[in-house]
Amino acid sequence: MEAIQAQVRAKESGNYVRQLRRNGWVPAVVYGTNFNNQTIQIKGRELDAALRNQATNKPFRLEVAGQTQDVMVYELQRHPLFGNILHADFKRISMNEKIDTTVPVLMTGDPELGVATLVRHSVEVSCLPGNIPASFTVDVDGLNIGDVILVQDLEIPAGVEVGLDGTEVLISILPVKAASEESLEAQDEAEAVAEKAGTTEEAKKV
């Protein structure tokens, strides 16, 4: 389990938080049941390193003012252009109590024919924090058009309960043309939304 070093954050004003970020700190909050919210600050480089070494859906050990607590990353707010973390929320947990979280679905390999398309990018699970899988990795090597991977095809570790029906489709192998058409439809829809937004913005200026 990755450990994250943090300090108590004394102030919450906008000017103070902006100064923290300029000095390389990330403002954060720790909360939990029967636990008063705690405002903290973490060195941005140390937080980035911890998140590179361990999946964000796994528990972390947070050390603040000489005290250690087990937490999960609840939310990360990143800069829309540069991607650096602007704020972090942590939820205090017990390693002896089950929690609900999501596990990403990843693909490896290449189909014999067609294109592998993720129907669901993640799966909801319930388990003890120490049993959370970092991901569900599915090998699509050799599959053909029309093949599907269902929830029941996943290798579920002992002690992990999946919150989806076993017959739900996770990955589908589509013809190249069908996959391209889906992409074009998504592009057309995005352009239509953008055009509508532009029209609205122009109307506001008049």
Structure in a nutshell:
With 206 residues, the protein is α+β, with helices and mostly antiparallel strands. The protein contains three helices and 13 strands. A hairpin with a 6-residue loop joins strand 5 and strand 6.
Task: Describe this entry's structure for a reader.
This is one of the proteins that binds to the 5S RNA in the ribosome where it forms part of the central protuberance. This is Large ribosomal subunit protein bL25. The longest helix is centred in the last third of the chain and has 30 residues. This protein is of the alpha+beta class and 206 residues long. The C terminus is likely disordered.
Beta strands, count = 13
Q: Sketch the topology as an H/E string, one letter per element.
A: EHEEHEEEEEEEEEEH
Beta-strand portion reads: 35-45%
The structural domain count equals 3
The low-pLDDT segments are: 197-206
Rg for CA atoms: 22 Å
Mean pLDDT: 85
Tell me the structural class: alpha+beta
The CATH H-level superfamily of the largest domain is Ribosomal Protein L25, Chain P
Shape: elongated
Largest beta-sheet characterization: 6 strands, mixed, barrel
Work out the helix count: 3
